Amino acid sequence: MVEFWRRTLARAAEREVSLSTAQRFVDDVARRETPAHLFSDVRRCLDDLASEHRTLGVISNSRSEASVRRLLDRAGIVDRFATVTSSGTEGVRKPDPEIFRRALARAHARAEESFYVGNLEWTDARAARAAGVASVWLNREGVGYTLDPPEVNSLLEVPNWVRRLEGSPEKYPARRR
User: Fold this and answer.
1) Whole-prediction pTM
2) Does residue 43 surpass a pLDDT of 60?
């Protein structure tokens, strides 16, 4: 990661940047607290899923599990998630199916009984599906009509998707429009 940032900083500065300077930059960014803003549908979705006794987890391409937990804590929702799996901690990133397998193992869950919501079409929704996990793409700026992968515009749609998939032999039942 430091080498990536060294190259990026060098391009921006239009001159060479030492590894030690890049390391200081990475360390400084890691120390800063990222604002934790939530969309208005997040808590209601989590409440709905919790009321159904769902086990929730996070899979993140991030620096570390600890950094994700800090962000979730600042947002006031860390207690909603039984597991957090981070690419930085695991050494494997989405879209690699291995990170999904590790997250499932941590949650003591099977792929065919799990559901994934991702905000990136390829890295998240399609990658989860490649790992055998039913998924939707949370595209807040989309139209909601993409079926491959299925697209939702709000987390308020997620509990209904989970319920429909549980009752359907199809992996992706037809959506009502």
Assistant:
1) 0.78
2) yes
